[in-house]
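# nightly structure sweep
# worker-07 picked up a monomer target from the shared queue
# config: single-sequence mode, recycle default, output format = C-alpha cells
# input follows
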Amino acid sequence: MIAYREAIKVTGTDLLSNAQWVLAFCRRDLTKFTSFERLQLWDQILALCILATRQPTKSTSDKTLTSAERQAWERASNWPRYPWDPKQTAEQSEEYDSWWQHLLGIHEIQCKTIEEATTGRPVEMPMTHIVLSPSPKGPIATFPLTSFRTSAEGTHFSGADGAMAVRLLQILQKYCGLIRRCPQCQGMFIASRKDQRFHDSGCRSMMGMRKKRGRSARQPKSRRTQAKG
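# output follows
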C-alpha cells in the first residue's frame, strides 16, 4: 500500500527511528498544520500502530501489509477523509472534528508520558482499544484498528491511542534512560552515550557562548576594559 510505504519513509520501521519520530512529534505545534499535513501525520501514526502490534513472525521492516492490516488501514484512514454527509466536505463533518480532537489527545498523552518517564518516576499509561493475546514470550498486542463505533454520521474506526501507547511503551523500555532534555534548545533527544547532555555540538557551543557572555557581564567594568587591553 502506497500510503503505508510513504509513511514509514518518515517514521522509519526500527524502534530507534520511531523513538526519534515521537520526540519530533512532541515538539511540533499541530495547531498550525494544514489539512494535508494533518492527513500525512495521521498516516504516520497509523504506520506506528501497525509496527507496534505486528506479530513476532512478521518483521517490522516488511513494507507490505497483511490482508487484515490492509483492511484495518483503509477503514482507519477513512475517518478524516470521508464526508459522511454528501452535502459536506470532510473538513466540515462532525466526525472530522472528533478525529482531530482524538489526534490532539494522542499528542498530549505521548508528550506527557515521555516527560514523566525522564523524571525517573513510575509512569501510568492509559490504553484503550487494545486486545492482548497470550504467547510463550508474554502478552502480544493484536492489531487494534478494527475497533468501531456508530454515530449519527456512520460507523467508523474509533481510535489509535491504544496502539500508540504500545509503541511508546516499547520505546521507553529500550530508550527511557537515554531520553534527555537539552539545556540549550530545550528539545528532547536520545543520547548516544550516557554522559551526553546536549542535543548536538551546536547546542553545546551555544551554551558555552552564553556562559562566557554571562561571566563577562558579571565582571566589573574596569576589569572588562583591562581584559580587552
